[in-house]
Request: fold
Amino acid sequence: MAIVRNTSYTWMQRNRGAEPTVLFDENAHSADCAYANPEAELLLHFKREAVQICIQELPVEFREMIVLRELEGMSYREIAEAAAVPVGTVVSRLARARKRLEQCLIPRSIGHAG
Reply:
């Protein structure tokens, strides 16, 4: 995993701006959305979009931790090995990343008065 991570970072540094970022549209590829009513589907779309935007706005070291833990389901130890950092750093970065996500998502929540 560490090799893939480092190779990816190297590629991103060399090709920054050369390739446009294409976001995965989970709504288009999700079978359970076909059963939702239109209003629920629209709300789900806005929530997913907000999460994607907020994850994109995280600093790289925080984004990496969130993606590996929450989306890939890796353990703290696995993340520490892949990122070549101590487990304590993983825990700290995850806590900070989650806090930033919360701060980003609250104003974007539907019906939030603020």
The mean pLDDT is 81.
